[in-house]
Structure formats: C-alpha cells, structure tokens
Write a structure and sequence with these properties.
By secondary structure, the chain is α+β, with helices and mostly antiparallel strands. It has 4 helices and 4 strands; from the N terminus they run ααβαβαββ. A 4-stranded mixed sheet has the order 1-2-4-3, sandwiched between helices. Helix 1 crosses helix 2. The longest helix has 25 residues. The protein is globular.
Length: about 120
C-alpha cells in the first residue's frame, strides 16, 4: 500500500516520484477525459509484484474492477504507459481511445476504455 511504500522509500523520494508522475501524466489525463467524457469508473492503479506476475493475479484484479463498473452500467477507463499492459487490457475488452507522447520525458501514454458488459 502507499503508506507502507512511503515509509520504506522515504517521504521525500516517494512524494517526488508521485509528483513527477502526476506532472508527466497530466496531458494524457486531459486527453483521456476528452476521449471519454461520459460518467465512468477510473482505474487509477493496478500492480502486481514482479515475482508474482504471469500468474493471473493482474487479470483477477482487473476482473474485479470491471465487475464494479459493470454493476453500475458505466465504462471503465484507465491510462497506462506500459506497452505490455495495452495487450492485457485489450484482451479484457478495452479499446485505445487516445495516445499521447510526452516529448519532454519520452513516455508514451495510452488512454483506454471498456464499455459495461451485461
């Protein structure tokens, strides 16, 4: 969790990393909300420790988030800057709705949306 990570890494470094990430993601956030302006659930973070990846944990977490959005009959939207995650999300019914390249940081962002099922 964030509180534990902040204690382990140290508040100054943790807060700095989060601030830098927020700044880098800001144009992508704006583009995503233009591409998906309707009410929606927003998946802010989904992470699996490297030693546990490839075991279906990320898909299970994603299915849980999708179930909440589906229950509310709302789309689920997210941002990712990891190309391998685009493949995972597409496999679960997401579509790319915007792509943003941050020329200052050389980071590419994908905004994705999945419409409710059922």
């Amino acid at each position: 969790d964030h509180v534990h990570a902040r204690k382990v890494i140290g508040p100054e470094l943790w807060d700095g990393v989060l601030a830098a990430n927020d700044e880098d993601a800001a144009p992508a956030e704006a583009a995503l909300h233009l591409a998906a302006p309707e009410p929606h659930w927003y998946l802010d973070a989904l992470a699996v420790t490297p030693e546990r990846q490839g075991q279906g944990i990320g898909s299970a977490l994603l299915r849980a988030a999708m179930a909440y959005a589906d229950a509310d009959d709302l789309p689920l939207v997210l941002l990712t800057c990891q190309p391998r995650n685009v493949v995972l999300y597409k496999r679960h019914g997401f579509e790319v709705v915007c792509e943003i390249d941050n020329s200052e940081t050389n980071v590419q962002w994908w905004g994705m949306r999945r419409y409710p099922q059922g």
